[in-house]
Structures are given as C-alpha cells and as structure tokens.
Amino acid sequence: MKIKIISVLLIVIGIFVICYPKISEVYHDYQQQKLVKEWKNSLEIIHNGEDTSEVSNEIEFTDTAAIAHVEDETNAEDPKPDFSSYENMEGILVIDKIDLLLPILHGATKDNMKTTVASILDTGKAGEVGNYGIAGHRNRTFGRNFNRLDELEIGDTIEVDSGDAQFEYTVTEKFRVKPEEVWVLEANNKDKEITLVTCDPMVNPTHRLIIKGKIVD
C-alpha cells in the first residue's frame, strides 16, 4: 500500500514538473494581459470632455490651491502651496517651463484626475529604474493641469519631489500615439524614466501626447 502511494505521488510530481513551464507561461500571460488592460483603462480615462474647473466649487477651490503661482502662496515664506488635503499623494510634479506645480495622486482614476495629475498603476516609481507614468487631463483653461504640456521640447526639465527626495528628468522624446498603444508605458529595465500622458488634440482628442524623460546621472 505504501509503495502504491509513493508511486502515485511520484507520478503527480512528474506531471507537475512536466506541466510547470506551461503553467508558468499561462500565468505570466495572464498577468501581462491584466497589466495591459489596466494601462488601457488609464489611457482611456484621459479625455478632454468638459473643463473640470466647473465640476464643483469644492474641486475648484482645491485645484486652485494646488497651482504654484497663486499670488498669496508666491509671497509666503514657503513658496510651496499646502497639499495636505490630498489623500494618496505620491509627490509633486514641477515643470518650470510651463509654470506647473501639481500634486501627483496614486492611480489615474476619474476621481483623482478631476483636480490634478495621477500616476498610472503598475508603472515605475519616481527616481527608480523603470518607467514612472503620470497622466493628466488637458483642460481648455490655459495653464490648468496638462493644458500646456505640448510646449515641452527635448532638453527641457521635469522635476518630481517625492517628499523624501527630488528627482530631475530631462525630456528625451515627444510624440503622439493612439490610446491603445500602451507600449509607451513599458520600461527598458535599465533607465530611470518618466512618461507624461495627456489627450491630443485638445478638442475632440483622437490620440495621446507623450512626453518622455530620463534621469541623467
């Protein structure tokens, strides 16, 4: 009886060893498909629509407080506005060329992107090897969110303040893709990259404007 049990176990183990590569391949394919689906959902959320500045008075107040060049904040001893009311905040995005200073929220959901920019789930992290994806609406109000993102050119600077450290990226690429082209969020596993994504053109968008940058050590 004991020999029979051992024989059955050996057969089961043998089958598992033979099937493991295929099982592993199926699992990784599933994970990749799940990741691509999440990325597609994030890219689909980025649309023009109505100017979110008119959604509600509360949203308007919160977003206005997040803009770098509010006169009261500029004249204060600490030039940075107070972002303490934001939940799930990962850091602050700063692009001096287009006068942008906004909190980065975790997850490019509709709610997060009503007032500010947000990181795209399952992309990299600021300052680390990987591709840190950030999405934002291109509102029609001048200077709001990613409204002026198309003004960036190769060589410009993008900064991310994580609270613990500050990271400076240099713009390396600027191009446009279709919403389903999620390859722009993939990492090459050697560079510390950032990818900013918004809709294009501003009215009736059909594509996504992509700004890519790298940390130059």
Automatic annotation (TrEMBL):
InterPro entries: Sortase (IPR005754), Sortase_D_2 (IPR042000), Sortase_dom-sf (IPR023365). Coiled coil: none annotated. GO terms for molecular function: hydrolase activity. Pfam families: Sortase. It comes from the Bacteria. Keywords: Hydrolase. The active site is at residues 137, 199. This is Class D sortase. It comes from Paenibacillus anaericanus. The lineage of its organism: Bacteria, Bacillati, Bacillota, Bacilli, Bacillales.
